């Protein structure tokens, strides 16, 4: 899933390639991708892009004098830039293509989504806060105003495990499954620790890990073409998606806890005092 660093890099890439150019055609291929109908999708056609912004994990293309084209790439979606779009309209089918945007230059981009769970979303709205997911977003963790005091205030009444708190977009915007694993590893903290139980020292450590992990990921992604961002994200991860590999910090074996539709990865030595966390799904499979 694209998270804050990748969406930030996409924002920079699209600012360079889209701003000042006209969206001459917007061609939906999968009807399920469009989540609004007023204004219609055609309302952005013939308008130049005035600015590209990021709201959490949402991309916002603001047209000049017109509505906003907002997209959320969800778990399996992606944006593929094309220096030259194919001739003719795209054909609906079983492929990953969900929507195509064509510019007056002949360039454009495709929104694609792999798999069968179609969650990629496109909204055409007069104001980005008309999108429910944007309206409920918490503060951006890289904003200048998001200091340690603000972070501590968010956690002090949280009775959830810290992993779940970091994933809650209404609490903190933009962090997903991968970077929450990375942040907790950097903070040397169990994902199952209760957020409200953090000591001041632990809160400081977690805040610094949050800001450092995201900032470094943004810097690694900055200036990369859209097609290279996925590979860059994977190469920069130390624990997420690396079950069974040695921890790059201590050498212990990275372990996993599985859930119904996701999993988390962690290092026992670095994060849980050497004790493996209970993985109920795996335990049932081994019975």
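^ structure tokens above, recovered residues below v
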């Amino acid at each position: 899933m694209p998270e804050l660093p990748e969406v930030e890099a996409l924002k920079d890439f699209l600012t360079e390639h889209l701003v000042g150019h006209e969206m001459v055609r917007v061609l939906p291929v999968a009807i399920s991708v469009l989540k609004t109908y007023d204004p219609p999708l055609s309302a952005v056609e013939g308008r130049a892009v005035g600015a590209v912004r990021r709201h959490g994990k949402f991309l916002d293309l603001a047209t000049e004098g017109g509505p906003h084209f907002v997209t959320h790439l969800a778990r399996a979606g992606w944006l593929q830039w094309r220096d030259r779009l194919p001739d003719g309209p795209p054909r609906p089918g079983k492929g990953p293509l969900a929507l195509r945007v064509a510019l007056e230059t002949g360039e454009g981009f495709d929104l694609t989504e792999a798999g069968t769970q179609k969650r990629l979303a496109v909204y055409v709205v007069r104001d980005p806060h008309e999108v429910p997911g944007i309206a409920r977003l918490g503060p951006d963790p890289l904003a200048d105003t998001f200091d340690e005091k603000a972070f501590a205030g968010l956690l002090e009444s949280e009775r959830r495990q810290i992993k779940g708190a970091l994933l809650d977009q209404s609490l903190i915007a933009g962090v997903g499954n991968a970077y929450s694993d990375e942040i907790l590893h950097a903070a040397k903290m169990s994902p199952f620790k209760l957020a409200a139980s953090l000591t001041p020292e632990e809160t400081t450590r977690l805040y610094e890990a949050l800001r450092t992990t995201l900032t470094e990921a943004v810097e690694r992604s900055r200036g990369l073409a859209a097609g290279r961002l996925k590979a860059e994200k994977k190469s920069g991860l130390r624990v997420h998606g690396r079950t069974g590999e040695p921890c790059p910090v201590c050498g212990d074996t990275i372990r996993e806890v599985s859930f119904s539709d996701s999993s988390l990865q962690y290092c026992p030595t670095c994060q849980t005092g050497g004790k493996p966390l209970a993985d109920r799904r795996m335990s049932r499979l081994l019975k």
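The chain has a mean pLDDT of 93.
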